[in-house]
């Protein structure tokens, strides 16, 4: 029986060892609006195949993902998996799409946003492009941390600066699994909602090409990234994609036999 999405937005569905919300952008936005009013820390995972396999391989990381306030389907295969499990009305909420939509909504509703992570040049270009597209967008915080382990004093300073900025949404772009660990570690010390957006700033900045919509719908965004970064991504995609297909097919046929 297909569940009504209005009854299942808060429900998390198990895909391998990850629990993911079959949800919509409208519901995601409504949750963030409520959290903004609370001024408490929350975090959202935007879940793709890489994250799901990382969670399957590492129990500690699985706990991080499964303790998120929301985990939404970023990768097209995750979206298809939810469809196959009879969550027909779920939406594909990839990081680039969610970031742009939330920035548009924030610009129209006087919500302050911030960015943490990414290379300094890429981050600045991302912010510049967003401000050109959404003139009323207020970006109250932006920081590209050094590529090394931070000291406790540096961590405290970052948290204090984020809270002093009074931002309400923080886009965390450290890459998986680093960004998820960071969000979980600092949730209780922040007064905003954190969203792990991965490489989204690289697409918004223009550093990487945003594929045509038909490519995204066919689930081939990964192929575009692979062509642009073959040495870095070939073995990762070969390993994670093939392992995900194998493991999810085992789960799916068990589901069908119930």
Summarize this, please?
By secondary structure, the protein is of the alpha/beta class.
For the secondary structure, the number of strands is: 8
Label the overall shape: globular
Q: What is the strand content?
A: 5-15%
Strand order of the largest sheet: 4-3-8-7-5-6
How many helices does DSSP assign?
Answer: 13
Major sheet description: 6 strands, parallel
Listing every helix as H and every strand as E from the N terminus to the C terminus, the arrangement reads HEEHEHHEHHEHEHEHEHHHH
pLDDT averaged over residues: 89
- Helix content, binned percent: 55-70%
- Indicate how many domains the architecture comprises: 1
Q: What structural class do helix, strand and pairing data support?
A: alpha/beta
- The gyration radius over C-alpha positions equals 18 Å
Q: Would you identify the regions where 5 or more consecutive residues have pLDDT less than 50?
A: 1-5
Cα end-to-end separation: 12 Å
Protein described:
- This protein has 258 residues and is an alpha/beta fold.
- It has one domain.
- It is 55% helix and 14% strand.
- The chain is built from 13 helices and 8 strands.
- The chain has helices at 5-8, 25-38, 49-57, 59-66, 76-84, 95-108, 120-133, 152-165, 178-186, 200-205, 213-217, 221-228, 230-257; strands at 13-15, 18-20, 42-47, 70-73, 112-117, 138-143, 169-173, 193-196.
- Strands 4-3-8-7-5-6 form a 6-stranded parallel beta sheet, with helices on both faces.
- Helix 12 packs antiparallel against helix 13 (230-257).
- The two termini are 12 Å apart.
- Mean pLDDT is 89; it is low at 1-5.
